[in-house]
Structure formats: C-alpha cells, structure tokens
C-alpha cells in the first residue's frame, strides 16, 4: 500500500479522492475479495468489507480506520488500522473461526481533512454530524468540490450513509505521540480522545508594494496573522497541562514576495481532553484576535470549520482491549488519544474504542513516521482477540 501515492521522503502523499487514493482503494478491494469478503460502499465512498457471522440478525463488529494520508504523511497513520483489520479476518479464515456477529473491515473516506476540511468527514456524515450535502460541497484549495472528486474517481457508492448499524467499532492506530514509547508500553488502552476546534481566520489587509509603502501606511494582514499565532501559543501555554494550539496551514493572497497580502487565511487547531479548557481557549482566541486586527486596521472574520467534543470510549470494549493485552502478556497503559479519529464519530452511534501502538519518537504527520514490526504485531494481536471476543466466537 505504501508504494501507492509515494511521498518525497519515504512516506506517502495519498490524499483523499486523488487518483492515488483510487488506486489504493482498488488494491484494498482486491485484498478483501481474496479474503472472501463482500464489499459495500456508501454515498461518501466509505468501504465496508463483510465477513458473515453465524447469526444473520446479529449486528456486525466493525473494525477499521482510513487509507487517505496527509500530503507529507507516514506509511502507518490510518493504514495500519485498515490492514490490521483485514489481517484479523485473514487470521480468522486461517483458523476456521466462526463468530455470531459478522465482522466488517472499514475504510473511511477523508479522515485526514487535509484536502477537504473538516477531518473525519465521512464518519461525521455516518454519525449524523454533517449532512451529505455539506460534505459534497466541501472545497479543496483548488476549488474542486468533494462530490465531484468522489464521482471522478468512481467511488460513489449506493448505500445510504449511516444506514448501517454497529454492534461495536474498533480502530487500531499508531499513537502519533511520544507517551507509549517513553513509558516502554506496547499497547495503548485508549479510554478517551481529546476534543478539537478548527477556527478558520480570514484577515483582510491592503495589497500594496512592500518597498515603496511607508510602514505607517500599511494595512498588514501578515503581521496580524503572526501576532495571532503568538497569542494562540500563549493561550495554549496558559492552559497547561492538557491543551495544545497551533496553525499548520496559511494562505497569503496574492502570495507575491513584493506585495503586502490583501488576504490571509489560516486555520487555528486547538485541542484538549477537558471540554472547559477547550472552550475557554476558543473564547480567549476569538476575543483577542479582533483586537489585534483592530490595532492594525486589518479586517478579521472567524468561521468554525471543524469541531468535536472530548470523547469517552465504551467501558466494556476498553476492558476487552485491556484484558486481551493482559492475557497476551503485553505491557499496556491507559491513554487519551491526542489525535482525532473516525472512532470519535463512531462512538456517537455505537460502542467504540481504540487500540494504539507506539511510533518512533512519537512522530506522525511526517514522512519519517516509523514503527517496529514487534509493536505492529502486538497491537494487531490485541485487536484480534478483542474483536473475536466481542463478535462472540462460535467455533
Ligand atoms: O487531525 C487529526 O487529529 C487527524 O489526524 N485527522
Ligand atoms: Mn489517522
Ligand atoms: Mn492523520
């Protein structure tokens, strides 16, 4: 899978609804077909590959993650969870295991939100958080519509989004943070996921010559942006421990090196497992940013383009993961996920939880993202046992 949509430094650039995403989907479908699974696709392009259970009326246990990557993504973010879910099924096939509940291996469309915001878009529609129409009209930086791109790659499915009901949902994922490696733990028993706000700022300055415009005549949206970034840093540091804030994406217009920007658009990403802290950070940022802009005569508008509250995962499933790790003799610890995942939206409509493995230096959303085979195997082993137990083994 890592050969599809290669990056420039050993990772991947397999962004959602690109030709490489389509190629990755076809390869994943081929592997699912070879494992004897039946593929269903919904109107958001999410892929559901089913292994039948012995009880046709029993709701399935869903196991999955995402195959789309960041533009400079790693080989494991999302992919580990989808392919480990497939490996669970292939191992069940090898062992001739039958379960009461069907197993559905899942690949969610556009988890990353890199090309089309917000993140976790398809699982958000599945959970009833976003409408299909909202999703279809999301635009990428080139102005392409999500719905048009999904159609272009030929992955608009016929299933109504969210019509499927789940007995349980499991997602196996690299931690994308440094805790498990630092604590020398093989397994993260994920009890919660921190909440998030994505605030998109549009600052309006005045395009002018960077050479001949005197400093006191500038309406400098770029300067306003930099002061807002400093303020976001101070607000997040003021809420330690357990709060983060920063900016990953900025657009200058006209983005010419000798023109002061007329428009600056950027997204502030703030997160915390504590809802009060999360909302306090948002309030502080939304109160201070306009004041910063006023002093510079810069226009300021703020739009929420992504949000989910902190998530508590299902106690029974969390226990299934923890007891599997104990039975199998893996070191483990409770963990709050720093990154968002499709499991966060699945948890709105079904019992859900996650299994995590360490990653080297806690690095992710970087092409150098790396894990060890031992870590990958331990997590997949725990996932296998927790899933088979929850699906109620019959044979
Ligand atoms: O932003 C996130 O937490 C996820 O990687 N989409
Ligand atoms: Mn991910
Ligand atoms: Mn990611």
Describe this structure as you would to a colleague.
- The protein is α/β, with parallel strands linked by helices and 395 residues long.
- It has two domains: 261 residues, Zn peptidases (Aminopeptidase), CATH 3.40.630.10; 114 residues, Alpha-Beta Plaits, CATH 3.30.70.
- Helices cover 34% and strands 23% of the residues.
- Strands 1, 2, 3, 4, 5, 6, 13, 14 and 15 form a nine-stranded mixed sheet that branches. The chain has a four-stranded antiparallel sheet with strand order 9-11-7-12, with helices on one face.
- Helix 2 packs across helix 11, helix 7 packs antiparallel against helix 8 and helix 9 packs across helix 11.
- The chain is globular, with a radius of gyration of 22 Å.
- It starts with 18 loop residues before the first helix and ends in a 5-residue tail after the last helix.
- 50% of the residues are buried.
- The mean pLDDT is 98.
- The structure holds (2S)-amino(hydroxy)ethanoic acid (HGY) and manganese (II) ion (2 copies).
Summarize the structure.
The protein contains eleven helices and 15 strands.
What amount of the residues lies in strands? Answer: 15-25%
Cα gyration radius (Å): 22 Å
Bound molecules: (2S)-amino(hydroxy)ethanoic acid, manganese (II) ion
**Looking at this structure, what is the CATH superfamily of the largest domain?**
Zn peptidases
Oligomer: single chain
Supply the CATH class of the largest domain: Alpha Beta
**β-strand number:** 15
Mean pLDDT across every amino acid position: 98
In the residues, how many domains can be counted?
Answer: 2
Major beta-sheet overview: 9 strands, mixed
Poorly predicted runs are none
Q: End-to-end span in angstroms?
A: 32 Å
> What's the helix-strand series?
HEEEHEHHHEHEEEHEEEHEEHEHEH
Overall outline: globular
Helix content: 25-40%
